[in-house]
């Protein structure tokens, strides 16, 4: 391993906040990283990290080296992208991350066709519902619901993602068809909950166009949209669902939209996120293929919701 590689390794350790996390990403033992950082310090003749048994901190010299390492990574990335864009035929590794549902339902069909068209492109698809650091983990593209907070990343909205209120016929037989948002709020609901987000209200606009919140009676919470959908299909709860999780359940009569005259606030749209504006040709072509598959005006998932344009 040369000095450049060791500098980039040091950058990963600092970005991840620990030797263990950096080792996990590289799939190597943490002792290997520790030895390489020590060799880097010997090569440069300066201490870069102050280490304890549980943590580390950058020295003044280390902080300067991290800045240079970030610049070096950017320069190397630009060099590789420039070279790749001179190939007429896309090639190389395309590394993508997304949530599990998006990856399985919407990206996998595009990837299958993409690799038939461009067999020299290798694909690594990482399905993970956590927000990964696409720069430090080396991803070309990330597909996410919601605009990223990191202003250093490039984010492009690729599809809207509206909400609708759903229940199974069995639920309606048990509780009746609610006529107002207040009636609905008294019924059992399945709602999303994670470490960072907890849905406890229905957000909508009243007849005057003013924003309103109606507290809901949650009896089942999960951090996975498909689990919430399965619970709703059981007939025991209703669900304020993002449209992108809907398949053919409404067309087949397994789910029924409720209170379709209520104007719900739009859910977070789907975004493609990438670290650089100058995309390699393979990345740009895949991005275009995803947009084409999802639909530029009407998202593909709305095809399973008859008359959705007149609802909510």
From TrEMBL:
Kindly state which keywords UniProt assigns to this record, in alphabetical order.
Answer: DNA-binding, Transcription, Transcription regulation
State the InterPro entries in the record.
LysR-type_TF_proteobact-type, LysR_HTH_N, LysR_subst-bd, WH-like_DNA-bd_sf, WH_DNA-bd_sf
Q: Where would I find the HTH lysR-type domain in this sequence?
A: 1-59
The answer, when asked if Metal-binding is one of the entry's keywords, is no
Q: Which GO terms describe its molecular function?
A: DNA-binding transcription factor activity; sequence-specific DNA binding
What GO terms describe the biological role, i.e. biological process, of this protein? DNA-templated transcription
The keyword DNA-binding appears for this protein: yes
Instruction: Provide the family line.
Output: Belongs to the LysR transcriptional regulatory family.
What protein am I looking at?
DNA-binding transcriptional LysR family regulator
Q: Can you name the source organism? A: Thalassotalea piscium
